[in-house]
User: What shape does this take?
Amino acid sequence: MSRSRSRIRSTACLVPLAVLTACSNATGSLLPEQIILEHRAVWEGQGLTSYSYTYEFWAFNRLAGQPLQLEVRADTVRSVMVVATGEVVDPRYFPTINSLFERALAAARDGSLTTVTFDGERGYPTSIRYAAIPDALSSQRASALQPLP
Assistant: This one.
């Protein structure tokens, strides 16, 4: 197993006991895609399609490294606000939690995923890091998720 895959496995297993059992099987390990899918099942089991969360990303972009407050309704990002300034930005380029899972899975499959961690209660990805590619997305972070009525 490659060094990055073992780091993904050990980092992803820092979750509650209910999910910890998903981090091993008869052979003693799961592939990163399997770990992501196990956490996605926890997320999907909650049925949340309307929520807000804080999103940060690192890439060559003026909004990079700034906490952004995203509001998701009917599994679509409806609004994005820069926390520090209150500036409202176009929501169509920002991810839902389901999109973060898709990005993590794609990166795990193409070998560019270096680390992924998950929220202990809700199972969503809290940090996704990618192999460094100049001018490309290098990492994403999600936190403070709150269900919306």
Q: What stands out?
A: The chain has a mean pLDDT of 83.
